[in-house]
Amino acid sequence: MSRVATIPLQRTMSAAIQRSQEALAKTQQQLATEKKANDYAALGTEAVRNLSTHSLQARQDAYANVSSRIGTTLTLNDANMGAIDTSAMSLKQGLLTAIGTGTGVGVNEAITSAFNQFRASLNASGGDGSLFGGSRTDGPPFLPNTLAGTIGVPASAAFANDDVKASARLSDNVDVQYGVTASDVGSGLYAAFQTLAGAGTIGNPPTPAQLDILSQAAAQIDTGLTGLRSVNAENGRKQAEVETLGTRATDRSVLLQGIISGNEDADLGQVAIDLAQQKTMLQASYSVFSQLSGLSLVTYLH
Questions:
Q1: Residue 130 region, left (φ>0) first, then alpha (ψ -120 to 50), else beta?
Q2: Do residues 221 and 214 touch, judged by C-beta distance below 8 A?
Q3: 233-255 b/e with 16+ CB inside 10 Å = b?
Q4: Which of 88, 143, 167, 231 has its CA 20 to 30 A from that of 188?
Q5: Predicted pLDDT at 129
Q6: Which residues lie below 8 Å from residue 96, measured CB to CB, with a gap of 6+?
Q7: What's the confidence (pLDDT) of residue 179?
Q8: Which residues have a Cβ under 8 Å from the Cβ of 118 and sit 6 or more positions away?
Q9: What is the pLDDT of residue 158?
Q10: Residue spans of beta strands (DSSP E) within 23-105
């Protein structure tokens, strides 16, 4: 004979309410965290793939960050080499004007100004050390403090940088050497300044010997600028290469982030729909449970 009882039915409804509460709590957590799961274990078969993708993305982000830092260094290199180029061209024009007119007005000032710019640019810092010092950080790469200080000092003694060129890995198995040294930039122009230093103070008018020295220095400036521009052109090529590699790393990072997001991030639109449905179901469960709890067989036996 079947037994009539309300307690089993109440237990069944209680278990159903608990399941609804758990589902609602899970959906609320997804809404709060915007994630499908709290840990990788909950992702199931996608867990290993996502862990690997996170590792790949971190590597691409590192490449992009290094590319950005190196790009800044190359831009500073270009700015300082450009400043030397501009001042050397201005000096050359001043020397040719003095030779052509036979007057020395302003020549001494032009030579001093160009030398100071030359020295300041070669000893420029990139924030974490000398731009043109190679691997040496114990002092400036260009030593003479004044134009007169170049007299009798060969380039080998004037430039204190070493020949170590900085390099960095910017993509898988792709290393880019981007360092520029002071001797690479300024050796040719240094010869011109040495020549001008040997002329002493340029008079007005310059002596014939001084005019010859000015003419020689102008030719040396031309030679020095050729070398400088060659180095700067290579620096520009490196800038383009670094920018391309950095953009490529950023694009790859975005692609990998899309894969990660597809596996980990919750669909907030669907979460909102689920939340509304589960809330309605839970409210209905509460209502049914309340009605069933009020039922009693005694009421109907009367």
A1: beta
A2: no
A3: eebeebbebbeebbebbbebbee
A4: 167
A5: 80
A6: 218
A7: 86
A8: 84, 87, 88, 142, 186, 189, 193
A9: 96
A10: none
Decide: 67 and 302 in contact? Cβ < 8 Å. Answer: no
H/E stretch holding 127: none
Burial (0-12, 13-18, 19+ Cβ within 10 Å), 259:
middle
**Phi, psi dihedral angles at 95 (to 5 degrees):** -65, -45
Q: Which residues are CB-contacts of 84 (< 8 A; sequence separation ≥ 6)?
A: 117, 118, 121, 122, 185, 186, 189, 228
Residue 202 confidence (pLDDT): 92
Name the amino acid, one letter, at 215: S
What is the predicted pLDDT for the residue at 152?
92
Q: How many helices (H) and strands (E) does the chain have?
A: 8, 2
The token duo for 125 is 């810092």
Looking at residue 1, its pLDDT comes to 42
The pTM (predicted TM-score) of the whole model is 0.74
pLDDT at res. 89: 97
Tokens for 268?
């907030």
DSSP, collapsed to helix, strand or coil, labels residue 108 as helix
Calpha distance 59→47 (Å, rounded): 19
Please state, in angstroms and as integers, the Cα–Cα distance from residue 272 to each residue in 38, 269, 279, 286, following that order: 18, 5, 11, 21
Rounded to 10 degrees, the C-alpha dihedral 73/77/78/79 comes to 100
Q: What was the pLDDT predicted at 40?
A: 56
CB of 90 within 8 A of CB of 114? yes
Residues in the chain, pLDDT under 70: 1-17, 20-46, 48, 262-302
- Locate 175 and state its tokens: 């290393």
Place of tokens 């003694």: 157
